[in-house]
Structure formats: structure tokens, C-alpha cells
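B., you asked whether I could sanity-check this one before it goes into the benchmark set. Here's the sequence:
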Amino acid sequence: MGRGLPLADYLALKGKELGTSDWILVDQARIDQFAETTGDHQFIHVNPELAKQTPFGTTIAHGYLTLSLLSAMAYGVLPGIEGTKMGVNYGLNSVRFLAPVKSGKRVRGHFAMKDVSERSPGVVQTTVEVKVEIEGEDKPALAAEWVTLAYV
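And here's what the prediction gave me:
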């Protein structure tokens, strides 16, 4: 860590679009790994034969799998703050799962700086709006407000 924008420049990003991530493939192997890690083996995620009988016609990613990809999406898009010692997730103000991500689809995140402030000396709180787009689909997979803290 430690590289990034001077604090004043970072604070000036409030209300600005930050960019769009690269695409990430959500294939059945990734879905199965997530199911194994979390213990969530619901058929809609891991059983292609049974999932064919649902309105989706195939398996879909766990909503929390899509949400967990935010960090990977953010690495190439979100700027850091010069001199940052560490950053941590603080939570989510909101998250809505708007459309299922079907196995084999690609997703990417669109990020905007909703709010940023020094909550105390050396601690910067950032609220980022993110929408996760599904390639070839009109409706996003999810929309969230993601809150992080940077210790500078």
C-alpha cells in the first residue's frame, strides 16, 4: 500500500465516476468453489440438471459470490491514498441483488465516489456506489453502497 493520490485530491473525488473494472468470468467451477467454501450447495447453484427446470434454465451464481467479487473488481479501478498504511472493509449501507448471474456469464463493476471524508485524524471513510453489470444483459446483477476505511 502507500501509493496513491494525495489526500486532498482523493477527497476531491466526491461525486465523481471512478471507472469500470475488467470483466470477470463466473463459470461453474467458480460457483462450485464458492459453494464448497460457504457450504451453500443449493441446487440452483450446483446442479445443472435440476437448474434447467427453473425459470433461469441453468445454474446461477450465489448473490454473495457476486458481491465477494467487488474487491477484485475494485483493485484496477479505485484509487488509493498516498501514505495509506492499511485499508479495511467497513460494511455496506445497502446491497440489492437485482438479477441472477447465470453460469458462464461475465460481470464487471461500475464505481462512483458517493462520499468521502476524514472521520478522524488519519482515518478516511469512503462510500462507493457500485453496480455490477452482466455482459449482454440490461439489468445489473447488483447495486450496492460499499464503505471502506483507509488508515493514513
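One thing to flag: The mean pLDDT is 96. Otherwise nothing jumped out at me.
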